[in-house]
Amino acid sequence: MLGRARTPFRLRTPLGVPLRQIYRPISINRVLLQEQKKQENVNATDGVETPKRKPLSRIPIGAIPEANSQKIGSSGNVEFSTWKAVVLFALVGTAVTFFFKREKKRLELQKEADQNRGIGKPLVGGPFDLIDTNGEQFTQEKLKDKFSLIYFGFTHCPDICPDELDKLGLMLDELKSKYNIQIQPIFITCDPARDTPAVIEEYLKDFHPDIIGLTGTYDKIKECCKNFRVYFSTPRDVKAGQDYLVDHSIFFYLMDKEGEFIDVLGRQYDASGAVEKIKGHIDAYVPRDQRNKQKNSWYGFLFK
Amino acid sequence: MALFSFSKQEEKAPTRSQRKLCWDARDEFFQCLDNINVINSLDGRNKKKVTTECGNEEKSFERNCAVSWVKYFKEKRVFDEKKAQILKEAEGQDAAVIPLLGIRK
């Protein structure tokens, strides 16, 4: 009311009609209406403003209307014109949608990993005591502080293991080049009778240089396979030089930084698919103590 | 057979190049079997046909692969063929193939 003359910001449409005349939000309507009234006033009194007080006006008696109206009228920096509001709404909406989608996916992966870890005794994995190709002891302790990918196979495998180990090499390279992620690849033999450290070392030369080869006594390997739920058909007493195949499950086991099992990757994944899956799990990974904290907090229901 | 018949090589795992030799010999043999319409070369009824038509390929296959591999690949050929047939049949009945998690073959 009675504000100082202000020229509202106007967008011209191609037809030359001010945009605000086509569509006006309520708040702008009021302001314009007041301006029109004021204009009439100015015309009527020939340029001299004669402020009139309406009943129930909030302007104190004797106050300079100029100063007051400035407060209401000149808040143009906060006032939204339609197109700005639409753009802002779209931007904020997109950002929020994107954020929640990502968070939802992350939470789902975290939940999946947590279910796979199990409570108490691990469902898959657990302690093992094997030796690497240098003849040194390798236990579950060596899984700590890095993500590991474990594969069970045997060196005399006709076609599947070499295929999968080649895929493993591609996965490792892609993880490194695309996401700068380095994981610890481990090959555990299911055929301890034939696969000595020397044989495995020679065999793995054909594949990615990072792959760590593990073997052990028949009983240690059997126990390890059992813990990882790997189907194991190796006969106990094989004669030297005997020619046989070993039936075994074909999975990559993804282990977290605490040596706990997160997920299996089957043969249905190609290298890129597996890389994305691993990347998702690594992004969603939360250390154990933090996981427990989350579960015990008031928003813990989100993680159950 | 030759790969594992030397006492020195008994313990060693086949290398990439040895595997390739074996696979190539296998593919040649299977190509020959395709030509004479034989799926199961382990079947005694096919034996005569296979030896006369694809004898050389089979010998090469057996020379370049371990005995257990030869048996494995021959069995796998039968299995793969059965699988292909089942899939084809299912497709004829407008069935959607649902990939089983973790199982590709």
TrEMBL record, chain A:
A GO MF term: copper ion binding
Disulfide bond as UniProt keyword: yes
Membrane-crossing residue ranges in chain numbering: none
Sections of the chain in a coiled coil: none
Pfam family, one: SCO1-SenC
UniProt cross-references to InterPro entries, sorted A to Z: SCO1/SenC, Synth_of_cyt-c-oxidase_Sco1/2, Thioredoxin-like_sf, Thioredoxin_domain
Main location (coarse class): mitochondrion
Membrane listed as a keyword: yes
Disulphides: 157-161
Positions with a binding annotation for Cu cation: 157, 161, 248
Any single Gene Ontology cellular-component annotation: mitochondrial inner membrane
Cellular localization per UniProt: Mitochondrion inner membrane
Biological process per Gene Ontology, one example term: mitochondrial respiratory chain complex IV assembly
Family statement drawn from the similarity comment of this UniProt entry: Belongs to the SCO1/2 family.
Protein known as: BA75_03080T0
Organism, as annotated: Komagataella pastoris
Gene name as annotated: SCO1
TrEMBL record, chain B:
Mitochondrion in keyword set: yes
Xref: Gene3D superfamilies: Cytochrome c oxidase, subunit VIb
An example Gene Ontology CC term for this record: mitochondrial intermembrane space
GO biological process: mitochondrial respiratory chain complex IV assembly
Pfam family, one: COX6B
Keyword Disulfide bond applies: yes
Superkingdom field: Eukaryota
Coiled coil location: none
Subcellular location: Cytoplasm; Mitochondrion intermembrane space; Nucleus
Keywords carried by this UniProt record: Cytoplasm, Disulfide bond, Mitochondrion, Nucleus
Membership in a protein family: Belongs to the cytochrome c oxidase subunit 6B family.
PANTHER family named among the record's database cross-references: CYTOCHROME C OXIDASE ASSEMBLY FACTOR 6
Protein name as catalogued: BA75_01057T0
Annotated gene: YMR244C-A
